[in-house]
Amino acid sequence: MKGDKAFMALALEEARNAQALGEVPVGAVVVHRGQVIASGFNRRESWQDPTAHAELIAVKRAAEVLGSWRLDDCTVFVTLEPCPMCAGMLVNARVPRVVYGARDPKAGAIRSLYAIGEDPRLNHRIEVVEGCLGTACGEILTDFFRSIRQAQKAQRSGEEDPSTCSKDDVL
Amino acid sequence: MKGDKAFMALALEEARNAQALGEVPVGAVVVHRGQVIASGFNRRESWQDPTAHAELIAVKRAAEVLGSWRLDDCTVFVTLEPCPMCAGMLVNARVPRVVYGARDPKAGAIRSLYAIGEDPRLNHRIEVVEGCLGTACGEILTDFFRSIRQAQKAQRSGEEDPSTCSKDDVL
Questions:
Q1: In the 8-state DSSP scheme, what is residue A23?
Q2: What is the pTM of this model?
Q3: ipTM for the complex?
Q4: Which B residues in the span 20-49 are in contact with A, Cβ-Cβ below 8 Å?
Q5: In chain A, alpha helices (H)
Q6: Strand spans (E) along chain B
């Protein structure tokens, strides 16, 4: 849907908030009847909380807003394919529709490793849309991990090459 | 292990706390190097939070206590087999060992529907022990759902039989 891209752009803004804190850049928004009612971004490191993924934070906030653990009439937009924890959470919250950007081949549980949102054995099924602003959602992650690798390489190079020692190093 | 039963008995106490609030009775404790550092019980209804499962609450609290999202050297004891959300959360938290009581054939994601804790494609594997105080952990759930069904039956029976109307009903 045309409106999906506008909401995913907001989720991307949330991902940039994560990046600004040095967190893996993933963002999410929850839309209820056409209105954004909650948002979140990955805070695992800054909160030291293993549950602090973008969509879990956003859904908890949405449940607070609605006063209900059931997220009827809601769509969750998230920049990265949800992991098993988050896919299970979306089922538990009875989220009717999930739109995500980039696939996560290493831990994705909506299409990549599992299809938890579409498992007929569970008590809820989710309508899934994938690839919404997928390139942008993937690039922000690729850029983040590239910059981390470059920083690590530069650090190692500095450690191995004595010519790069600073004055402080030899004092 | 012998000590497992003592810790599961504490998780069962947590399940009774849930039951006292009218919540589905599931409880959990987190043990770090032989000491209970956190506990929790199902609060989905009382908090109207779709993420408020016993083990997720307990693990969040344990991470706060340890100041780390990695629950190294921890065992999570939970009276019911974790659902996909909670099994994924236990992987995300790098929990080394999980002990649970009763199987959940409808939503269990450790052995019943999925084996998320033992998936070689994910970046962490969990040592799993099942059936610890399994009978007691299952019975508290069976009793809870039986009492709900009986209450519902009595209510329907009362609605259908005008002889059971109270004085207030006819005023």
A1: S
A2: 0.91
A3: 0.91
A4: 44-45, 47-49
A5: 2-20, 44-47, 54-66, 84-92, 134-160, 167-170
A6: 27-32, 35-41, 74-80, 97-102, 127-130
